[in-house]
Amino acid sequence: MFDFDLRPYRGGPEIAAAASRGPEAVERVARQVRATVDSDDADALGLQLAELLDIRIDPPGHVGALAAATPWFAGPRTIERVGQTLRQDLAGAWWKIDCGLAVLERNRSAESTLQAILCAHEAHEVAVILRARRLIRGTARAMTELRQTAIADAGLDDLCRGFGILLERAMIEGTRFRFDDLQASGATTARQALQGIVWAQFDGRQPTRLFMVDHEGAGMVDSEFDDVWLRADATVGVVHPIELTAELRDEWGRLFADLGFVPLFPQLDRQCLRGESVFPFGDVDRSVDHVALHRFLLQRGWERYRDTGRFDFPLRGSRLEVWSSALLHPDRHCLDRIALKQPKGSGLEHDIVFSEAVAACIELLEEFAPTVLYG
After folding, report:
1. Strands of 310-315's sheet, edge to edge?
2. Under DSSP, is residue 332 helix (H, G, I), strand (E, B) or coil?
């Protein structure tokens, strides 16, 4: 248990006892505690938790646990204190960004206090990515929900950027949607974000019919501009270029160029690395700027694993792991190793995982350890 006394606050001892078990355990306890305390007691506990976020706590993992608990008790004083915390130091504190966003999502009255701060610290891109990341996990309503978040309030550019992040992750992770959800999104201002993307109906893991959002309306058409009608519950998704032949990639690429579509993320022209490519996943052991590493990983959709020095990049049942002591102990400044956790197998799924893992790994090393790549 950490050294700060939460006993004077209703629910405080329960939160303190759960801190050593990590953010997920704390969040469960916080949800239970919040149901038993009134608003004033909740705000008092939330204020104390928010103040502790500015203090270096040992072991370091406990600070993430406190960040997970704080949004559940966010009354007016807590919101103001979280705002002060964000103003002081946002850049290198992943838990502060996540905490601020969670407070925003659970309490609309926080919007005027926190939204401007997140934008002012140039963290809006991080905010969009974190929201998109939360929404992508297998929910058929992901697109509809994304339109309803605060991203939409920020204007069409941010809405499109959020969709771009969501859809690229959907392509990488193999997330599928219902056809009627896609139609509903195509009938809104989100249509601009959906153009220039090749979609497919999927039968299991196999794409069976390719189509795009109609450039003139809300419907779906194939490459010959014939209407595509599917059952409302038909399974559709963003096609990965590895799932297309070279001829199909060229055909759709020429079509989008003729229509003047500029996709929000690389799909057809994405670099695809097959299994014969050799890449040295393993020890890196290079000094890094921990603030820059935090920002880089968050902005690209990596997910912190609990409160360890590990970030994960989810890949269709597999994951790419980055281990860095700098993420847990900033004074150590070391990027330690990279590992690909992938079940044995073959086929398109295996090829997609390998290709995306190598691409993410190269991007990371080019930024922080180019000598590992180029000597």
Report:
1. 282-287, 334-341, 318-324, 310-315, 303-304
2. coil
